[in-house]
Design brief:
By secondary structure, this protein is an alpha+beta fold. It is built from seven helices and 15 strands. Strands 1-4-3-2-6-7-8-5 form an eight-stranded mixed barrel. A hairpin with a 5-residue loop joins strand 3 and strand 4. The chain is globular.
Length: 285
């Protein structure tokens, strides 16, 4: 696996940024204003964790029908719409990915002006398929885009992203795409697992990355379990892509679950111990 790749951030589309900030604060998150983007009619707020990853809450200030995130928001409401992996050398990474026959667009320039007037710049690369993450690399110092200090401390104890769960049509096929996407060097070994869970009615592929993992889930044909129906519902309404997240928390904090139908629009489970696979796929509490 390309050693510099790690989960950078999650993207949560919201209709009203001010209200979203209030909702997330009510759940114990420390939320900071990010500012306005210069490359799109959007503005954001950030929930930054101790491990350097973060959740981006993003609002559109004007219609953007060509933007997939905006289309999902318009069609099915607020929620998790994407996630990004961080790369130290995006042009080189994209060249290697394209060499593997994976369709990807980029580098694409991005920029944002913070509330205090600072301009920060980055580049992204976007694979053609929404079940795959996009890539992000900073041009200006990352600390401008991802603030440090007390903003990374949260009353709910969250310290980092543990799991991103992704709904896909075929977990085994998507796992092969992730293998190609992430195992870029010939001597790399990805810690990848694929198996079927009959009791839940789903098939699962797991990609382990540093302290985080990506769980790919597809529903088994004819299965009518709650988990299978949940995946079907996500695929029908939002298309393939990330829909739930597990956050790592400090040991002293209680384990809680938010979602999948709360006002913040995304399923979140907090845990200071390993979460069951069922908990990652379908939050039942």
């Amino acid at each position: 696996m390309n050693d510099d790749l790690r989960i950078d951030h999650l993207v949560v589309a919201v209709r009203d940024l001010k209200m979203a900030i209030v909702d997330y604060q009510a759940h114990g998150f420390n939320v900071v204003h990010g500012g306005r983007h210069e490359h799109a009619p959007t503005q954001n707020a950030l929930i930054v964790f101790a491990d350097g990853s973060y959740i981006e809450l993003i609002e559109w200030t004007a219609p953007a029908p060509n933007d997939r995130w905006y289309r999902v928001l318009s069609a099915d409401g607020e929620g998790l719409v994407d996630f990004a992996l961080r790369s130290a050398d995006l042009p080189m990474l994209l060249m290697r990915v394209k060499g593997l026959g994976i369709a990807v667009e980029g580098p694409i320039a991005g920029s944002r002006v913070t509330p205090d007037g600072k301009q920060l710049r980055w580049q992204v690369g976007r694979p053609a398929f929404s079940e795959l993450p996009f890539f992000c690399a900073d041009i200006t110092p990352r600390t401008l885009r991802v603030p440090e200090g007390d903003v990374r401390t949260h009353d709910n104890g969250a310290i980092g992203i543990g799991t991103v769960t992704v709904a896909v049509h075929d977990a085994a096929a998507s796992l092969k795409d992730y293998r190609r996407l992430l195992c870029l060097a010939s001597d790399s070994v990805c810690n990848l697992v694929t198996y079927s869970i009959k009791s839940l009615g789903v098939s699962v592929g797991i990609v382990t990355m540093r302290d985080s993992e990506i769980v790919l889930v597809s529903c088994q044909r004819a299965a009518t379990t709650p988990a299978a129906n949940r995946i079907r519902d996500v695929l029908k309404k939002r298309g393939p892509g990330a829909y739930a997240v597990t956050l790592r928390v400090l040991d002293a904090h209680d384990v809680i679950t938010i979602g999948p139908n709360r006002e913040i629009g995304v399923s979140i489970e907090f845990s200071h111990h390993p979460v069951s696979l069922a908990g990652k796929i379908y939050l039942t509490k």
